[in-house]
Predict the structure of VOC family protein.
Amino acid sequence: MKEITGINHVGLRVTDLDVARGFYEKLGFVFIVGPVGPEPVAVMEHPSGININFILNGSESKTLNVLMDVPEKYTGFTHIALEVTDLQAAQAYLESINYTITEGPIVTPDGASFIFVRDPDDNVIEFHQTTAS
């Protein structure tokens, strides 16, 4: 469909707005509004234009991330990939704020590289650097 111009936002279900907000603020996201609406939802945006909607009705019980952590491979979105200009610098920063690198760095045959972390609700975030020119 030619009318699509980009991704407007990513929705993440979370259990605690304050905890999620604190985590994503350390990644440079700025709180915009919330909670609003019947779900309810809160919105944060990064200066790069990436917008995240936190759906604030996550279950308080700690369970596995069904899309990532169980042997059955269910369909659905498994992670968000954030493009970075310097993966080594991003990794150093994440480690300096005690965010655990859960996988990587991984380098593809074409030279792209990426690492993964998880937010407090076990949502997976990839930091991705494309092939250097």
